[in-house]
Amino acid sequence: MTTRTERVAGKRQPIWPKVPADFVRAVLKGHSALGLAFAAAIYLVCLSGSIAVFAREFQRWEHPAAPRIEAAAPGAVQTAFTGAMAQAGNGVEHAYVTLPSPELPWLLITTEGKAGEHAWIADGQGRIAESGASPWTEFVTHLHINLHLPQTWGMFLVGLTGVALLSSLISGLLAHPRVFRDAFHLRLGGSRRLQEADLHNRLGVWALPFHVIVSLTGALLGLTTLIVGVLGLAVFQGDVNKVYALFLPPLPKDDPRPAPLPDLAAMLRQAAVRSPGATPAYILMQHPAEYGQATQVGLRQPNRLAGTDALTFDREGKLFHASYARDNNLGKDILGSIGSLHFGWFGGGVVRVVYGLLGLGLTYLAASGVTIWLARRRDKGRPAPGWERVWTSVVWGQPLAFAVAALGVVIAGAGAPLSLPLSLWGGATLLALAVSGFVEAKALSRACRAIGGATLVLVALGHVALRGGLAGDPVAVIVNVVLLLLGAGLVASALRGRMVRSAA
Amino acid sequence: MAESLTWLAAIPILIGAAAGGWALRRAWRLRIEERLPWMLGGWAILIATLLWPAWVLGAARGPFIAVALIPAGVLAVVTSGATVKAARADGNGRNNDQSLAPEPLERPSTAWRTILRWLLAGPIGMIAAMAVGVCYAVWVPGEPQTRLLISGLMVPVLWGGAMAWTLADSRILRATAMLAGVTLICFTAAILRGFA
Questions:
Q1: What predicted TM-score, i.e. pTM, was given to this entire model?
Q2: What does the angle CA A355 – CA B79 – CA A36 come to, to the nearest 5 degrees?
Q3: pLDDT tens across A427-438, in order?
Q4: What is the pLDDT of residues B7-43, one digit of tens each?
Q5: Do B58 and A303 touch (CB under 8 A)?
Q6: What ipTM score was computed for the predicted complex, to two decimals?
Q7: Is A126 among the domain residues?
Q8: CB–CB of A163 and B156 under 8 A?
Q9: Do the domain assignments include residue A232?
Q10: Domain count of the fold of chain A
């Protein structure tokens, strides 16, 4: 109980009832164990996610000379789709048209089938202008979504990482009874452990809503197959399709006989009448060259989080299923908003920038958790120099590995296969880990920062020299400036560390 | 149009977040008896900053834009109040600052306890969370889509909670009994009800 003397003296009292010290220490033990077990996975998923927030910007950066259009006329969409299907050849199973939006002002057609996945960018008249392959963007997004592992396992692992992150947030709050009491403490430059702990805790508390949103939505996205499977098993006697049928339009009867391509222009015109005020966002086709085809036109309603109307047409252009955002129940609204909330694609550029920064903050939380554990061991006279080197190579090796992958794509061009950035990233990651076996942690950190920073500068300069990065799309220029600044910052931090060491 | 409106709305949201954060920091620095008005004022500003975008940017979209921007505004205030200290370390790289932070519990463990603990945190915790989710989906009234989505959201939260608890609790058999019991009860209840 607070005494009068304490109140007069102005001593700070905790907001919460006194938490038993043993409970705090036990929860801290769990928090520490979980953080250590999942640290590398959380770090990698968070870092790639922070970059993937800017997937649209990187796509544009990979194609600085692509024709930019504000809107595509229905006739142009039909022309572009027909042209893309002609180039894709036979056996296309699915086709996807991305219609121009402020984030991606392109008419982009993607096909998927026996010949693999291909993409094309068309101009305002629907003429195919160039390949729409974006290996760097694809590398980053796939790394974030499934770690480039087989789809089901990779997504499960990322989902599990989301659960671990959520669990760390819960135990982190419980393990820090002073977390609100010290909510504005930020002491830099003194004790390494104190500095890292202050940053870790302040970021953890004040950005908690963001952390909860991205970890929860990420866990749900990653575990969808498992959760839907169990729900289907338990409530629909094992029929998973009944769960999906509650959310997705019915499929037309399978009929693989070759058929003329669907009339997208007519469907777009019909969709505009049925969803007034909405902006056509995408067209998704199942078996576009077969009699059993179905075409879904998605239209985005303004100022809504889950604001997509989805109209599905059969081969004759007859509407056979419609789902309007205004009629959504809570479940459909939640489903429609999960992806947007996870990637920050619901509030324009300003939200993406903030998501990128807060995502880096979350990445730092993962990194600093281990750093604090290592510093605590050192302070107690039980240093773990081997783990310090390994962790340094993980933390600072990743920016280097990402930069090397980007440089490879800049040199090879947008036609590069996905395996190029993937192998470069994998090689740089392994090299950094191997070097950690015999290079001291501080030197390793400086080397990774210096080389990674210099590589980023080369990426920006190489993009300007080889890909016309100063002409064409202004977003590509912005990306290059940011890469240049990031690279210069990393090099400067490495040099500063060296100068401080020399002065000492 | 929507993009420029969001940029325009972002400025007052960030200002509101910084103002709320500043008021809370002022409360935090004051003596206890002078604190209340600043604390209430700070939270009131933050709540208002969370709510008003609903009328301008959409009922759900507006508050979520605010949820994203408010941490940025408050963290700017936290950073502006950072204190810089001189680095201190002895020749061995050890730090001489005394920390009052609690240390993790040192508890003796055996291989089977460690294995059981991670089984509880991993697959057993997942099954228990699934059981609660399924039970919710079949018992709680409402649209089937809503019931399924809410139960789907519950699973990661419950699994994460179970993970945090089982890794912390020293009485591992208690955690085992609790998770097994929850699983049994919830799956039985779900089977009895079926899905309507």
A1: 0.91
A2: 65
A3: 999 999 999 999
A4: 889 999 999 999 999 999 999 888 888 889 999 999 9
A5: yes
A6: 0.90
A7: yes
A8: yes
A9: no
A10: 2
